[in-house]
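Here is the promised in-class demo. Please do not try to memorize the tokens; focus on the logic of going from shape to residues.
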């Protein structure tokens, strides 16, 4: 179980709002965050199997930096599974949106390009990014912000280019299996060669199928660690060869040990902020991670 100390620490920093109803787009989840302190908040972002959009609703103090220290502010997009990302600011108020990769491809397009760990929303949406940010800031409640954000996402999704059904199917199977299905099997299921699947999936999602499956498995393991389970138990129950294998993969994704990841403040709010977080499953329905 998640420690009471972790929950208290998270609650002491953030007021968190979530939508009261399920949205119109599968594979999209949203949460609003407002810091309870005006002091500096500096958080390492734990990689996650979704593309994250963060819109600053405060006084412009929130910045998001990639592993090389390059900073973005305003509206920021964090690419799928980006490593070494940090958020920093004072008196923070922001809206976060998590997009499954098939949805992100239609809504954001080039954000999934490999190496584009952190990009400005303005680089992807042009002037519309500033208009959306102003509409969100002008909203009178979190529910109104969620509705306005959803309207912008739906408009972009309908105008965007959908991924091939085969790519969406493969992503859904990865999520359903928690990263435990082999690429060769997925290729056979969609009737593609392994080479074709590798090429199309990487072009649309931004990661190779193998790396994407590793990310999904890591996410499941990270949340089990955050819930208080031992590294040995997590390794045995999430498909790792042994505890050393889990340790290597957690270090590769975060630069931290499994013990440190289990206590990461970034994960400590997930039970509240992302309790209903969902991905696009293989049959187009919503699948909530355990």
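The designed amino acids, position by position:
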């Amino acid at each position: 179980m998640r420690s009471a100390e972790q929950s208290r620490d998270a609650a002491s920093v953030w007021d968190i709002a979530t939508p009261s109803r399920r949205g119109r787009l599968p594979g999209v989840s949203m949460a609003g965050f407002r810091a309870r302190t005006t002091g500096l908040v500096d958080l390492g972002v734990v990689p996650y199997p979704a593309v994250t959009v963060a819109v600053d609703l405060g006084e412009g103090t929130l910045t998001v930096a990639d592993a090389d220290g390059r900073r973005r502010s305003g509206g920021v997009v964090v690419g799928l599974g980006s490593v070494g990302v940090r958020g920093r600011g004072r008196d923070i108020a922001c809206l976060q949106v998590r997009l499954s990769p098939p949805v992100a491809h239609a809504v954001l397009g080039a954000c999934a390009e490999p190496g584009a760990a952190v990009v400005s929303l303005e680089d992807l949406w042009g002037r519309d990014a500033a208009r959306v940010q102003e509409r969100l800031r002008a909203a009178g409640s979190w529910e109104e912000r969620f509705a306005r954000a959803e309207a912008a996402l739906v408009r972009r999704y309908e105008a965007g280019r959908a991924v091939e059904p085969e790519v969406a199917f493969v992503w859904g199977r990865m999520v359903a299996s928690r990263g435990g299905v082999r690429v060769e099997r997925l290729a056979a299921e969609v009737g593609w060669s392994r080479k074709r699947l590798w090429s199309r999936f990487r072009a649309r999602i931004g990661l190779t199928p193998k790396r994407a499956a590793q990310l999904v498995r890591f996410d499941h393991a990270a949340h089990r660690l955050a819930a208080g389970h031992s590294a040995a138990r997590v390794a045995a129950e999430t498909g790792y060869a042994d505890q050393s294998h889990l340790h290597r993969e957690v270090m590769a994704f975060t630069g931290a040990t499994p013990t440190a990841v289990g206590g990461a403040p970034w994960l400590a709010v997930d039970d509240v902020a992302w309790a209903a977080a969902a991905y696009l499953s293989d049959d187009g329905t919503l699948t909530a991670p355990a």
